[in-house]
Write a structure and sequence with these properties.
Number of strands: 9
Radius of gyration: 26 Å
Helix content: 55-70%
Structural class: alpha/beta
Strand order of the largest sheet: 4-3-5-7-6
Strand content: 5-15%
Length: about 500
Amino acid sequence: MSKRFNVWLLILAAILISRFIGMALFPFADTTEPRYAEIARLMAETGDWITPWFEPGVPFWGKPPLSFWAQAAAIKIFGVSEFSLRFPSWLATLAMVWLVWRLARQLWSVQVAQWSCLVFATMALTYISAGAVMTDAFLALGTTLTLVSFCLVMSGESGLWRWLFFLGMVIGLLSKGPLALVLIGIPIVLWLLLSWREATNNLRRLPWFRGTLMTALLVCPWYILAELKTPGFLDYFIVGEHIRRFLDPGWAGDLYGSAHDQPKGMIWMFWLWASFPWGIVALLSLTLAWLRGKRSGIVSKTISNPGVSFVLLSALAPMLFFTLAGNTLWTYILPSLPFTAILIGRWVSECKSFWLSSIRGGLVAFVPVLLTVLVGLVAIGWMPLKTEKELVSYYQQIREANDSPLIYLDDLPFSARFYSGGTALEVTKNGLINLPGARAFQHLYVAVPRTWSSDRVADLSPSARKVMENNRYQLLVIGGLLRDQQPMSDANGVRSNDI
């Protein structure tokens, strides 16, 4: 093994390990991570592996269960923690790094493969999603596996890759749904239109009938069971999430959040953010080359090389599909990044420019160092987050047997729901009196907005006192409120108590 190979491997390992360590130190911040983490926690707790539950009694129809299966399994193995829930995404990213290596080495060289892996691992979205509780890493793994397998089979490879092509579809369909087939189909169809003569014979290498049958047998049972268990799932997920969400910018059918209304074409700006810093540097370099009159050479090299054209189409597919969509997020770019990284990795490894050679080491370190510093600042308490971990932990330490559950007035953050193990309650002001067993509580623990004045706190209860606060809420303890005050009857005979 060469010295250069050893150095490259050490750098890549350091990048991946830095994210591995950060997974355990960074708390879940509202809203995405704790929302998905709580769904996985409920799956592990209830043993219901068919229907992910948004909360007890409310099915989560927004995503298929593959990511939740992986996270719930990690909980079963490692226990409930930030690390266990993020670990599956880290493994999915590790698998994608290997796929990037394998394809870049097949198409070009070991040196191109090395730089492609470094570029991919240090892009902003890759590094963040590698240690985040999201579904996107699993979608990207599925699409990457299928597209890499297709490219390798078209290049003459056979054996296991013929079947991994279909396994990638299974992963995509069980992690994000039919969207996976769209992101896979766009580059394959466009590439076949460009290279039909070269691809005709190689297409026969794929076991289309048996592979499709295998895909259906692995995917369809869950979709059928999910619809039978909670009728309405297929209409919401297939029609709502995959058609209305993208065609209707004002779609208001999201049951679990709000639509992400963005200007059409915003997905291209998201690509710059997701691929940062590499995308910006590569785009600037490409623009300079274009202006210097090298445009014909760039285009001819791309079109004439089937491998390069397929990688380029795979990199562009998510942006092409989401360009006209009104509801988009920057995480939708992730399936593009493995192929974007291969193209940039080839450019970085072969470019003789002095300025690029002098800064490429810094580009590799930029995102990992920046995010590691951020994790450190959060860990030591210098940078506040939108998380209820500290408040919930404080409540759990001081509460006694006869005290109330942790109560959030009017709005229960997802992080409070997760860190309390699902015991935290969302209650309105008038609903406090109707808490089950309220008159037996020695103390009520109520979290109210930090912006509440002392007069407003006193209006809630004269006996309320603040015991701690974070950057969003203050925790109040109310001693004997509901036991000391006598409820009154209104004109209709309904018992009430104006707190």
